[in-house]
Amino acid sequence: MVRQAHHERAHTTNGRTPRTGARHERRSPRTGARHEWGTVGSASSTGAAASSNRYTASSPQTEQGSMTAPTDRYGNSLSTDAATAALYIEGVDAMLSASDDLMVRSDAVVASNPNFALGHVLCARTLASYGRGSEALLAISKARDLLVNTFSVSDRERGHVHALGLLIEGRGAEALVAIKSHLSIYPRDAVVLQPATGIFGLIGFSGRIDREAEFLALMNEYAAHYANDWWFSSIHAFAECEAGFHDAAAKRVQRSLEMNPRNGNAAHVQAHLHYEFQDDNGGAAFLREWLSWYPKTSLLRSHLSWHLALVELSLGRVDAAWQLFRDDFDTTQAHAPPLNALTDIVSWLWRADLAEGVARPQEWQAVAERVAVVLPKFGVVFGDAHRAVMYAKSGDSNALAALREAIAATSDTRPAMRAAGVVGEALVAATEARWHEVIDRLESVDVDVVRIGGSRAQRDLVVATLMTALHQTGQTERLAMLRARRPQVRPLPLMR
């Protein structure tokens, strides 16, 4: 049972405690599932909420009862001066909203006060997001050194550094245990909660077959501590979306966007909901408007462009989809997290190949060369499943052989890697038009595909490949059954 730390305050964006009110219970019209919602705050105007990413540090009571230390937006005391605290709050909100220039913002915190441990943790998290692992380790090491050499660090901050230090070191299972332990005392430490959430989070990449339900359970557990919080609402909505509670997710993400219309995570969830509701025209309109102002240096810019490209392809606007790929995908992988860039580019190129039946070896070779630089190591299951088709299409037989060897070495102990190996081999077979083999392999791993990670929309790459194989082998009845089961995967142009 989560207990609220005695110093925590209710979330507010203006320094005042929000009014309390009745809680509302709704049922999903599609599923009948019950969802308990926190009090709904009044919707801010677009202009007011657009500036809500920038908060000033407030100074409510700290853990020790003092009125002197600044606090973050969630009421947690910060062992630093007010000016640095304000920069830290801005940096955290930029991270939680998938905003732009995250590295610049986190660097500014450290420059303002090099002795503030949580500033170095924020830098470490940002560096890790961009695949700069060795630099992230140096940053977390600095934070740990400050715990030893600084007397003013609170117990909450020490636990914060410990839990996220394990994360930065790649000790995912231990990090998740430490995160849950920390949150049992400090449930509103949002920066610690964040890595456990999302599709690419510790639960999302756990390899567990029930990970979607586990993600939603985590969000439900902490919902009472984050009433009226724009970040938590968007991530809670994502958990509901992936678990199939689409109506509840749509209402919740709308509330998030009302509280902060510049929350990139909420826009991402909205894109997924348009996809799940098969609303291509609505999705295209929403994403075009969002991308018209969302900076290209933002964390999710390239990924949201991927979503729009899929919509354009589904609508048969192949030229528009390719234009997005050329203009908006982060093919240099300078601003997008490397894993996102790998999986988005590979899955897009493969879908385009399936749709058009046109070979593009130069495109495949370019992405393979870039991945070799920014994401050279095997071992991330979701990425490795995509690497297989990338190596096959780029003609790199040596890399494909090395990947197969790496997957085989861990398949016995990692069910998720075993599933990724089957998916990868099916995709390789598809590149050689061995369609019956594709069907056999993908149907054999149907239940376990969820283990490899990724969202439902991302894993629909597997469904689209299976649909193509059934179409190519003339198995119309089985194809119709698959379409009925997953109607979100619309027929690709060559299958219409």
Describe this structure in words.
With 496 residues, the chain is mainly alpha-helical. The chain has two domains: 24-275, Alpha Horseshoe (Serine Threonine Protein Phosphatase 5, Tetratricopeptide repeat); 296-495. Helices cover 60% and strands 2% of the residues. The chain has a two-stranded antiparallel sheet with strand order 1-2. Strand 1 (24-27) and strand 2 (34-37) form a beta hairpin. The longest helix is centred in the last third of the chain and has 19 residues, at 338-356.
Spell out the blueprint of helices and strands.
Elements: E1 24-27, E2 34-37, H1 46-50, H2 82-96, H3 102-112, H4 117-129, H5 133-149, H6 155-168, H7 172-185, H8 190-193, H9 211-222, H10 230-242, H11 246-259, H12 264-276, H13 280-291, H14 301-314, H15 318-328, H16 338-356, H17 361-374, H18 381-394, H19 397-410, H20 415-431, H21 435-444, H22 456-472, H23 476-485
Antiparallel strand pairs: 1-2
Helix pairs in contact: 2-3, 2-4, 3-4, 4-5, 4-6, 5-6, 6-7, 9-10, 10-11, 10-12, 11-12, 12-13, 12-14, 13-14, 14-15, 14-16, 16-17, 16-18, 16-22, 17-18, 18-19, 18-20, 19-20, 20-21, 21-22, 22-23
